[in-house]
Amino acid sequence: MIVFKNVHKWFGKLHVLNDINLHVRSGEVVVICGPSGSGKSTLIRCINRLEKFQQGELYVDGQALHDHSINLTKLRADIGFVFQQFHLYPHMTALQNVTLAPVNVRKIDKKEAVALGREKLARVGLADKAEAYPAQLSGGQQQRVAIARGLAMNPKIMLFDEPTSALDPEMIGEVLDVMVQLAGEGMTMCVVTHEMGFARQVAHRVIFMDAGQLVEKGAPDEFFDHPKTDRAAQFISKILTH
Amino acid sequence: MAFYASRIIQILPYFLKGLLMTIEVSGISLILSTVLGFVLGILRTADSKLITRSIGVYVDVMRGTPFVVQVFIVFFILPSWGLQLEPLPAAILALTAMTAAFICEVVSGGIKAVPKGQWEAAAASGLTRMQQLRLVILPQSMQTILPPLVGQYVLMIKDSSVVSVIGVTELTRVGWQTVVRIPEGLMVFTLVGILYFVICYPLIRLSNYLEHRLSLQTVKL
Description:
Shape of chain B: flat
Oligomer: heterodimer
Shape of chain A: globular
Structural class of chain A: alpha/beta
Number of domains of chain B: 1
Distance between the termini of chain B: 56 Å
Helix content of chain A: 25-40%
Structural class of chain B: mainly alpha
Radius of gyration of chain B: 21 Å
């Protein structure tokens, strides 16, 4: 589904992605962790081309992203992206947020879109908040609307960039629950997160990044309990004591 | 006093005609400069350095030269390049070219004030660049754009007095024509001032209202 082959990216002189090789299969849930500035957000932002890279090959759902002539809108329409800061459209209701892309990208009928939007909002437990504006919702609710917005496009892949990092602790659970449910339904997911509980529960693989390099990958329990590298061990001890 | 009143009644029709011309020149320029200003302002936020810099130069030149000079260039210099305009179209062209530069800055400022994440969220969902702008970015920018935009209209209406120098018989020119014929010079330009104020004041109130509403919304968010 997603194949990185020797991908490199530089921000000026900073080598943010250094020779990334990764294969994510359809239906797989991959958790990406690592210290801040390690390139993990950049990595998943490459998958829907919010970031470009300079070297290497990246295939997403059969499309070659290193080929600059690909149809970006079509690629992105099939990939849901959830941001750390939600980025809901503040001038639209929750329902309008969810239906905007189905109506304007998929060109589906407005009525149909509203039904679809309500269904997706119900799925994240917010059926009663359809008419609310983002400013009237809590952080956890906003992030669940953002997930529903992604799901409304019936994506093949869902990407999550630290979806719970901007949330108050008591709201993290409601967002993770939705993600766990999604993983259970077989969605292909790449999740940048430090939520170890989530990783242990649903991830098929955990990937550890540091300084732009993919340092370690493995099954969650194995990774957290017996990390192979010192850098990963150090990182895990830090998030555990935190 | 009675003398003043009869004098005003005598000259008022000319002033109203001048006022109508001021409204016509400003009104047409307002529409054209808004369209051009938005197009330029949107292009100014584009990725192409060539486009943004060219517009930047244009804006700087328009902002950094006196309007009366711009009017002279349009009316007296363009003809030697083959563009001969009557006073009215020349006035509209000059006003539009200048105001569009200011509106361009207001619009691009409003667009840049929308957080980058909004562009990213819209792009990530598959919207094209034009759709991102039309559906997500501009509706949010309008709150920032509208108060100064209306302010620009006020400035433009007042600046339209300058086109009297190329013979457009608008309010200020009627003032000049009248003041040499009657002795009450002070009254003439007081009247001119009042008539400008009458059309500008509602716009000033509108601008203040929009600003006030904007600050309320910011508090709400």
